[in-house]
Write a sequence for this structure.
């Protein structure tokens, strides 16, 4: 399923073109337009699902693909010291784009607990 009103579905379709850093048959990874760390990449499934739970329920193997793609991005970006994966889920948690996306953050010291 794709949604022409969904920004990340449009990125998957290639218009407007995002800054792609990694791609598989099921996932696309591109740089966040407003980076919160030296490396800030978003990994999305090519199919439209509104959040992590919806993706996990519908296509569990693609949920695993997101994590594998994130690990590949981290390796390519030289984040051997560690990186953070974030899935903001729901408006109250700060989700603003309702096409599930895995944030890959790294290249600086990380705070815990997160804000
Ligand atoms: P959320 O707040 O939903 O977890 O994350 C949405 C992310 O999408 C934000 O980090 C935001 O900076 C990013 N974003 C929003 N619009 C665009 C865009 O047009 N291009 C890119 N590359 N990232 C975007
Ligand atoms: Zn979408």
């Amino acid at each position: 399923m794709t949604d022409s009103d969904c920004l990340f579905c449009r990125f998957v379709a290639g218009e407007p073109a995002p800054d792609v850093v990694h791609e598989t048959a099921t996932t696309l990874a591109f740089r966040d337009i407003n980076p919160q760390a030296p490396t800030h990449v978003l990994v999305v499934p090519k199919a439209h699902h509104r959040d992590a739970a919806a993706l996990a329920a519908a296509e569990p193997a693609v949920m695993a693909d997101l994590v594998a793609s994130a690990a590949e991005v981290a390796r390519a970006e030289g984040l051997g010291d560690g990186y953070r994966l974030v899935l903001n889920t729901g408006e109250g948690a700060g989700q603003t784009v309702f096409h599930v996306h895995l944030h890959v953050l790294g290249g600086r010291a990380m705070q815990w607990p997160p804000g």
Remarks:
- Strands lie at 20-23, 27-31, 39-45, 84-86, 102-106.
